[in-house]
Structure formats: C-alpha cells, structure tokens
Amino acid sequence: MFKKILLTLDGSALAERAIDPALAIGKMAGAEVLLLRVVPALSEKVPEAGPTEEYKEFSEHVAQATAYLEKISARFAGEAVKTRIMVPAGSPYSEILRVAHNEDVDFIVMTTHGGTALERALIGSTTEQVMLRTKRPVFLVKPEKIHAARHLDETEVYVAAER
Question: How many CB atoms lie within 10 A of CB 160?
C-alpha cells in the first residue's frame, strides 16, 4: 500500500513525537521511511571572517544533522524498517516539499509543533506551509503536552454545542 514515507524532524523533542507513528506505519506497510532534517543554507554574502568559517559552520550543521538521523535510523533498523537519511539545506518547508515531490512519497509525517516559539513567530509554521502547499496526504502528530493542555472531552463539546 505505502512504499515511501517522509518523516520530517527538526531535532526538537516535540518533532520527535512523530517517530513512533512513522515507525509503526513503516513496519506495518513494509515501506521505506525517508528521515529528513533541513539545515540552514549557506548565505549568499561572504562573512567578514571569510567563506571558510561559514563553510566550516555549514559542515558542522550537516554532520550534526546526519549523526542525529543515524541514531533514529538505528531505531528503525532494529524494527526491520528500511530508512534513508536526507539532509538538504534551505528553507524547511520548501525542502520538505521538494523532497516529497522528487522522491514521490506516499505521504508526509510531521508534528503540528516543533522548533521554538520564536522561530515560529518569525518565520511561520513549517507544518502550516507544508499543508497549504502540498497535494500529498500529511499525517500530523499532535505532541502530547500540547494535546493534554487543550484537551476537551467530546461530551463537553457536544453539550456546549447544544446550548
């Protein structure tokens, strides 16, 4: 049924809530799970310290992201789920969409929240951008802490609607 699943991660604990559902679906379907973490792209401007410092910092970001995804990949391998690590550079939502299209994934798995509140305020929600711009199904995982804080019992909703 599913052949490729794209799991997007940003390194935050909130984003990691999407790992277990992606693992379960990948295992059940026998699908390959593409593990994606986007790193910041190199700046067009040459910094005062020179391009070598910027390349060094960029290389460190890529190495850290790759090591992070390798740990997650080992977890999938322990469950006999095939994975592939992808660390593109650029804008998170545009790279997610590019990879989803180029790899022809069946669907994208991500959390409703990730990163930091400041990042969301400055650049908007990556999840929202992906949802608005893709035609592919997006499986959203709501982090437990946020879900518990906003949880309403269904009966409360129905009772309030009837009034």
Answer: 9
CA distance 1 to 3: 7
Successive 10-residue mean pLDDT values, the chain, 163 residues: 94 91 96 97 66 84 96 97 97 96 97 60 71 93 57 44 45
**What is the SS3 assignment for the chain?**
CCCEEEEECCCCCCHHHHHHHHHHHHHHHCCEEEEECCECCCCCCCCCCCHHHHHHHHHHHHHHHHHHHHHHHHHHHHCCCCEEEECCECCHHHHHHHHHHHCCCCEEEEECCCCCHHHHHHHCCHHHHHHHHCCCCEEEECCHHHHHHHCCCHHHHHHHHHC
What is this structure's pTM?
0.80
Report the pLDDT value the prediction gives residue 145, as an integer from 0 to 100: 53
Tokens of 138: 């997006």
Question: Hey, what are 118's tokens?
Answer: 């400041």
